């Protein structure tokens, strides 16, 4: 039964570490037994549950909105991030995230400023409809797959495996909460109320249809780095016993798993498969070293996964 539920995982130390941990925390009488209500597992999204190169999928949606603005207003075409969007400079956009994970937030602030302007005054319903249409109709620029088909099959299996053993799974991502919520149920089987992410500030505006939520030109929270454990506690109210990430921005979330005498399984996804996905460690150097030092399982996409994406 254990192996049948993880068919896309190759036999080896990583798969066995997962199975052993789950057996220990779910077996009655085990000294590491954890009650079902405490079996919380949290997962980053970009680069952990679906592909994030050549840039995070969400940035493609933002790029379309910024490019539309630049087409209308020529003055924006020489200003970042509108310039990159208008010229389809994926390298600049992707590099912004890599620099962030290396501690340089100078261009992130520029990008966030553009995002706030791009969606100012838009209703949450309009945003969600646009995001869902983008995700369901878009294609990945290099993988040549539909965007909703870019979820990692082994990770979807892992989610089902954990749920089968009484775990409650959550997404905790630096990506936009409302963007992810439109498709997480279909791709991962995780409902929108179990998605924790970054968000812009919202306000309520009355209308004849019961009112609507509208985005304001100011950030609410950037759910990354040390903010992730805070958001986990404020949104979930429980410390996870399993956490999975892939970048330096997930470091604190991985460290937060377990705590004290409780069992924990922090786990890192390593992108080392240039033939089936991508090969990169930029923005993950620190957490990779930490994982090696602390003995956390490091999932090699090349060696641990029989397949990366569903057929």
- Main sheet attributes: strand count, strand direction, barrel closure: 8 strands, mixed
Helical segment tally? 13
> N-to-C terminal Cα separation, in Å?
22 Å
Question: How much helicity do the residues have?
Answer: 40-55%
Q: How does the helix and strand content classify structurally?
A: alpha/beta
Runs with pLDDT <50, length 5+? none
Principal-axis shape: globular
Portion in strands: 15-25%
Q: Give the number of domains.
A: 2
Explain how this protein is built.
The chain has 311 residues and is of the alpha/beta class. It folds into 2 domains: 13-51 and 148-304, HAD superfamily/HAD-like (Rossmann fold, 3-Layer(aba) Sandwich), CATH 3.40.50; 57-119, no CATH class. The protein has 13 helices and 8 strands. It has helices at residues 13-26, 57-72, 82-86, 90-101, 106-119, 124-137, 153-164, 177-181, 184-188, 227-235, 251-256, 285-294, 301-304; strands spanning 40-43, 168-176, 195-205, 212-221, 242-245, 265-272, 279-280, 298-300. Strands 1, 2, 3, 4, 5, 6, 7 and 8 form an 8-stranded mixed beta sheet that branches. Helix 2 packs across helix 5 (106-119) and helix 4 packs across helix 5 (106-119). The model has no long low-confidence stretch (mean pLDDT 94).
């Amino acid at each position: 039964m254990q192996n049948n539920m993880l068919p896309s995982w190759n036999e080896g130390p990583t798969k066995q570490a997962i199975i052993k941990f789950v057996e220990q925390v779910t077996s009655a009488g085990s000294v590491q037994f954890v009650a079902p209500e405490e079996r919380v597992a949290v997962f980053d999204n970009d680069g952990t549950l679906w592909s994030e190169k050549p840039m995070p999928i969400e940035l493609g949606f933002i790029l379309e909105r910024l490019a539309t603005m630049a087409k209308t207003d020529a003055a924006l075409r020489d200003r970042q991030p509108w310039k990159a969007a208008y010229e389809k400079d994926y390298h600049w956009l992707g590099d912004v995230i890599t620099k962030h994970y290396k501690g340089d937030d100078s261009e992130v602030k520029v990008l966030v400023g553009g995002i706030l302007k791009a969606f100012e005054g838009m209703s949450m319903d309009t945003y969600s409809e646009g995001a869902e249409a983008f995700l369901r109709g878009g294609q990945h620029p290099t993988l040549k797959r539909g965007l909703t088909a870019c979820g990692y099959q082994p990770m979807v299996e892992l989610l089902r495996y954990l749920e089968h053993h009484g775990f409650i799974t959550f997404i905790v991502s630096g990506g936009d909460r409302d963007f992810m919520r439109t498709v997480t149920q279909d791709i991962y089987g995780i409902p929108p109320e179990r998605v924790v992410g970054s968000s812009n500030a919202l306000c309520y505006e009355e209308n004849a249809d019961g009112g609507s939520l509208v985005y304001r030109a100011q950030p609410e929270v950037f759910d990354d780095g040390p903010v992730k454990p805070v958001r986990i506690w404020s949104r979930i109210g429980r410390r996870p016993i399993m956490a999975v990430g892939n970048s330096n921005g997930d470091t604190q979330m991985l460290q937060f798993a377990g705590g004290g005498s409780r069992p924990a399984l922090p786990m890192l996804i390593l992108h080392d498969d240039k033939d089936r996905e991508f090969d990169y460690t930029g923005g993950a150097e620190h957490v990779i070293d930490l994982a090696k030092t602390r003995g956390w399982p490091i999932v090699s996409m090349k060696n641990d996964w029989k397949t990366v994406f569903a057929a």
